[in-house]
Here is the input.
Amino acid sequence: MRRFILVAFMTVALLAGSAQKAVAQHERHQPAKPAGTDQKTEQKPAQGAVDHSQHHKPSAELPPFIPTLTDEDRKAAFPDLQGHAVHDRALNYFVLFDQLEWEAIPGEDGFGWDTKGWVGRDRDRLWLRTEGQRAGDSLNDAQSHVFYGHQFARWWDVLVGVRQDFAPGPAQTWMAVGVQGLAPYWFNVEATAYVGANGRNHYRFETEYEVLLTNRVVLQPMAELEIYGKPDLEHDRDRGLATLDFGFRLRYLIRKELAPYVGVVWHQKHFGTADIARTNGERTGGAHFVAGLRFWL
Here is the structure.
C-alpha cells in the first residue's frame, strides 16, 4: 500500500512539472505588450479579421547574381518613340527598296527592281509601287501603281487605285483594287485585281516569308502568280495562268536598314502565254541567279 501511494505521488509531481514547463515555453513565444496595457484592457482582433502585423517586414535582399535595376535599364526597356501615339494625326512616310538586283539571265545579263513606299497617317495612306526588269537593251517589264490604302483590320489594308504598264507592248492603264497584310504564321500577302480597257481583267497574288537564321542572316522565300481573264495578244498574254515566279533570297543585315543579298529565282510562263513566247522565239522560263541590295528609308 505504501509503495502504491509513493508511485502515485511521484506521477503527480512529474505531470505538474511538465505543465509548468509548457506554460513557460508558451509565454516566451507571446509578443511583448505595450507599456500600460494589462490583460483586462487588451483588445483582441474580431473574429474573421486578418492580422496584417506580419506583412510589413522588410523584403529580403536580392541574390548577388541579380543586378540592381537602374534608370538606364528602364530607359532601354521603354524607349522614347519620338512622341508617336497610337492612331495620331502625324504625317509619316516609309520607302522600301525591296529588290535592286543584277540578274544572270542565260544569254544576257539583266537588272530588276521592286520598290514600294507610303506616306500618310496610321490608318489612311497613299501607297506607291514600281517594279520591272531590263535585259540587255530591252525593257521586258515595267509598271507603276498608285493606291489609296485604308486599314480595315489589324495588320490589313484595303487598296484602291490605278496601275500603269510601260512594257511589254504599248502602254496601258488598269483600275486596281486589292488587299495586303500579314497573314497567320507571318506570311506577307498582296492580292490585287485589275480591270482594263475592253473588259480586260487581270489578277495577281504574291506572298513572301522571312526566316531568321541568325540575328543578321535572313532567308526570304517568295512566290508570285498572274492570271488573265481575257486574251491580251497585244501584250503577249493569253487567258488563264500566265506566269509563275518562285525563288528565295538570302540577305545579310549590315544594319537593319541595309542588307546585301544573293538568291535564285525561277520564272515560268504557262499555257497560251508560253505558246506566244515560243512563237516569238523567246524563252518560256528557267532559273537565274540574282545579287542585289535591299534598304529602306
DSSP finds three helices and 13 strands in the chain.
